[in-house]
Please model this.
Amino acid sequence: MRSRIVAVAACAAAIAGSVGTAHAEPVSPDVSAVHAALNSAAMPISTKTAQSIVLALARTTSGTPRYNYFPRSVHLVEGVAQPFLYDTVAADCLPSGFGDQNDSVGIAQAIAGPAVDDNLPVPVIPAGTVNVFFNAMNTAMSSPLQGDNLEVAWLNLSTGASGRAPMFQERPNDYVVTLSNTIATGRGTVVFAVFGSVLDSTSNGLPPCDYAPVVGVVRA
Model:
């Protein structure tokens, strides 16, 4: 499991590393080269994923502002949300009308316990657990039966514990897909990587939104 998480994090390292170089010259890596480089990673990889990684790199290196968005489906009574290192993107998966490339921006955040979110089935997030949630902007609401192929992998740098779990709709429907999971990571510094795809449930015939992996470092 540790090697899988390292592979996932390595896929996102170039994006995360570019966060500190905003306003540098935009990079334009070859999509086919990115796809070939990621084929051995222990995660779902498609040509669209590679295209999404190229777009995410372009967003961060060009200094594109991050989305200022917090979902209404998250109702924090106690605790704070910790944003991941950058906004991710899924290439060309939305209906017409959402921009020149019809791309979806993905926003990942985490709530470390102890915390309380009234919109979770079990509102209390205990110490040593983290609720990771992901918003797929401009997609329609999800469904518990929809079968989104989105996952989260994690590694606790303080203890060496690690794992991988699916993300699903556990909060009430909102106007965009919001998927999450509460992970028992233990206390410490935890590296998370969210990767995979989200479906737009109201748009027939559209491909899944295949997101570039997004990494967060959370104090649990």
Observations:
- The helical segments are 2-18, 31-38, 47-61.
- Residues 2-18 form the longest helix (17 residues).
- The two ends are 20 Å apart (CA to CA).
